[in-house]
Fold:
Amino acid sequence: MQIQRSENELIIRLPNVFNINIDYLQKLLDYLRFIEIANKSKATDEQILELSRDINKSWWQANKDKFIE
Structure:
């Protein structure tokens, strides 16, 4: 594995011998993007917490039938 830093990028190289699930890798990249956006945010911790509650509530309302029979 290698990590390189250039002026504009952070490059992570993994050998192709790893059996990495691409979906998990995408979730990791999405999380890193979230961290990048959150660091630029001027929202308070309470505003972020309230937004996350709203998102979770909306998600649950849309998906609960998949989990409850």
